[in-house]
């Protein structure tokens, strides 16, 4: 079996041998980019190169980029533990051409790596193109010999990428792997596409146009390529499993949480083990990159992820803080590729231990309150906003944690009631602040983040683009 570490290496070697500069992953906190909370795609560190603000000596690059998608437009937090293919933290393998090669070579490379180097069965691969992109359609026919019904034309923005309201943009092509008809789900564009049978493994972006202030588009003189492939998803394919959580890295992490809690990743407890493994990765990597838990901004997103995992540790019956005891396992799996994990190991363990110790003081009581409040509720009912707010305000339950806790029984939350309770409390606080000299505005981000869970800071305006692959 090819390990995830070998697959990452194999990808970088393949493109390195094809004259790409092999570039280290950038940190998760974007450098000098206040519009984006965390790096969420491989192209983010190269944004200025694509727009022409910066240039690189070598016009091709390849990387395995750390990504977090736990808020904002790309919020995969709620999927984690419940789909086979979503994580809050994942690695995006990418190859980039800065005005060098274009569509044909990008498709040749992708097809060669997948079917020749890695030996995937071409019959299991399906691609999509933007509905007007005849060029990509013809290239897939010519290079891959795919039958027309497996080059699906898609008219939505899923297949058209743009960096922002203005700037580079262009059509995309997504490559899907068919895990077989024993799994629920339909091909892309079909009503059942959200199932887990056809899994998107690789996204090729053809940066071909420039969008101007007046909305018009012109051809870029030197079009570029940006691609992104989820390492965990391709690892599942190459390791012959359907589910990302059955790959080597996740199996090792889940084995550790099983052992420490004396439970099995089966039935109702399966999601808890998966959430713990996933959130262990995102929290550890965020801590290693200098994010600390707090009540606002990036730190609050981190705290939300941590607490969510800690509730699942509680579900598994953990009597003491659990998360920090798993860090060593993560370091064994990923420390060689990411030495920052080794350097930060002690800090990660100490922070997780302290956070979990603190949260456990209110977790039990909060869960009890939740139990009482939901007694007699029927699936489809919503929890009173007041109660969700009390859990948040008094017991430190982030909104999405309560949502996650109610999910299994099919209960929702009265979001408007929650907002109203939040506003009322703010009014009280504002009145109390008068004369204290404190700035009321300090807390504004906190409110927004709590409900919206935005990864974008306010002031970010573009509808499409914070620069990630769509
Ligand atoms: P999906 O439609 O499955 O949510 P996407 O189209 O949002 O994926 P892209 O933005 O195109 O994803 O990112 C490029 C690649 O990164 C995807 O093809 C996929 O392999 C991987 N990827 C995206 N989101 C995740 C995630 N949350 N967890 C793991 N891998 C991911
Ligand atoms: Mg997505
Ligand atoms: Mg997609
Ligand atoms: Mg995509």
What's the helix-strand series? HEHEEEEHEHEEEEEHHHHHHEHHEHH
Strand content: 15-25%
Number of strands: 13
Q: Which structural category do the helix and sheet elements fall into?
A: alpha+beta
Distance between the termini: 31 Å
- Bound small molecules, which ones? adenosine-5'-triphosphate, magnesium ion
Largest sheet: 9 strands, mixed
Overall, the morphology is globular
Rounded to an integer in angstroms, the radius of gyration calculated over CA atoms is: 23 Å
Count of alpha and pi helical runs: 14
Determine the fraction of residues in helical runs and give it as a percent range.
Answer: 40-55%
List low-confidence stretches.
439-449, 452-470
Mean pLDDT: 91
Would you kindly provide a written description of the structure presented here, covering whatever features stand out?
This protein has 470 residues and is of the alpha+beta class. It has helices at 4-17, 47-51, 103-117, 134-144, 231-238, 248-261, 270-288, 297-315, 327-334, 339-374, 385-395, 399-407, 415-433, 444-452, and strands spanning 21-23, 60-68, 70-71, 74-75, 89-97, 125-130, 151-154, 160-162, 167-178, 198-211, 217-230, 382-383, 412-413. Helix content is 42%, strand content 17%. The strands form 3 sheets. Strands 1, 2, 5, 6, 7, 8, 9, 10 and 11 form a 9-stranded mixed β-sheet that branches. Strands 3-4 form a two-stranded antiparallel ribbon. The longest helix has 36 residues, at 339-374. Residues 439-449 and 452-470 have low confidence and may be disordered. The structure holds adenosine-5'-triphosphate (ATP) and magnesium ion (MG) (3 copies). The site of one magnesium ion (MG) has 5 residues, from strand 10. One magnesium ion is lined by residues 158, 174, 200.
